[in-house]
Design brief:
This protein is of the alpha+beta class. It has nine helices and 15 strands. It has one domain: Glutamine Phosphoribosylpyrophosphate, subunit 1, domain 1 (4-Layer Sandwich), CATH 3.60.20.30. The longest helix is centred in the N-terminal third of the chain and has 14 residues. Bound molecules: aspartic acid.
């Protein structure tokens, strides 16, 4: 098919699939533009993580390697108290991690209620690549990680332990919902081949009930990738994301012609417009990218941000939001 014919056909279909080079045609804008990959975006201000991912993408690594190793930066950072080592514990004082990863073939791996191992995202990847399953939980997941050579680690830092003890005094052992307790890292990347992968890793809601699992390891809720369309990832109160299968919704909206920004906005609207929604009491944020490298982010409340590394620039942007 001649190039002009292809553009016309793509425009009619409203999609831009099948462009395997490092350049893609941006067909939804009046003037046809060229976009250059790679590109990586992540929830919140995580420039060290996006830098790691970008460096890998620039050197020709896959988007899967980039999101895994990008997420690992935050997992290892003990100052990030909502991911990996140093994460805030559940209300019984146990740090339990949830993570998932998805590649451009639509394969996925997920780990829930993982204790004693920092790099939940890598365990999720190994579940995807080395087992016939998608998800492993708790003791089974931990055993699997040890079988791969992971060492048992102490995830509860002194700081998180003291914060937990302090919380116990004030909160009388009740779980609280508070936007300061959210900081999951979700990351989406497009590599030089134009292939999309995503990862999401968290210690979950701080001081959650023992056994609680949020959206972050649930494929379709915390994360979804469709390499023909784009990807989306969520942060915030996981229960609300699960109820609306948020990331899948964002990707399906993009499939139906929404821009990443409009798709994130619509997914937030689904949450806040639910009958009896108490959205004033919780935060949810989405970020998304499409196949041609456009991105978007949106949240219920002020305070959410997205970090984007593209064209050699690593920047954090404040997201638009629905309400104060
Ligand atoms: N979504 C995560 C959860 O509910 C929390 C977060 O985003 O920080 O477990």
């Amino acid at each position: 098919m001649k190039r002009r014919g292809f553009i016309k056909k793509s425009s009619l279909l409203g999609v831009s699939v099948g462009i395997p080079s490092s350049f893609a045609l941006e067909i939804n804008e009046p003037k046809v533009k060229l976009k250059k990959f790679p590109l990586v975006i992540a929830t919140w201000d995580v420039k060290n993580a996006t830098k790691k991912a970008w460096d890998l993408l620039e050197s020709g690594s896959s988007s899967l390697d980039a999101v895994e190793q990008g997420c690992m930066i935050e997992e290892a950072d003990v100052n990030n108290q909502s991911v990996g080592k140093g994460g805030l514990p559940d209300r019984d004082g146990n740090v339990t991690l949830d993570a998932c990863i998805m590649n451009s073939n639509g394969d996925c791996g997920s780990v829930v209620y993982l204790k004693n191992i920092t790099h939940a995202i890598s365990v999720a990847r190994k579940i995807m690549e080395e087992t016939p399953h998608v998800m492993l939980a708790g003791v089974g997941a931990e055993k699997f990680a040890y079988s791969l050579g992971y060492k048992k680690e102490k995830l509860l830092t002194d700081k998180s332990r003291l914060d937990w003890l302090d919380w116990k005094k004030k909160s009388e052992y009740k779980p609280i919902i508070n936007i300061e307790n959210h900081d999951t890292i979700g990351m989406l990347a497009i590599d030089k081949n134009g292939d999309i992968s995503g990862g999401c890793t968290t210690s979950g809601l701080a001081y959650k009930m023992s056994g609680r699992v949020g959206d972050s390891p649930i494929i379709g809720s915390g994360l979804f990738i469709d390499n023909e369309v784009g990807g989306a990832v969520a942060t915030g109160l996981g229960e609300e994301v699960v109820k609306t299968v948020g990331s899948f919704l964002v990707v399906e909206l993009m499939r139906n012609g929404y821009s990443p920004q409009k798709a994130c906005e619509e997914a937030i609207r689904r949450i806040v417009s639910k009958k009896n929604s108490n959205y004033k009491d919780f935060q949810v944020g989405y970020i998304a990218i499409n196949k041609i490298g456009e991105s978007g982010s949106y949240s219920i409340h002020d305070g959410f941000s997205m970090t984007k590394y593209e064209n050699n620039l690593n920047k954090t942007f404040k997201s638009n939001f629905y309400s104060d």
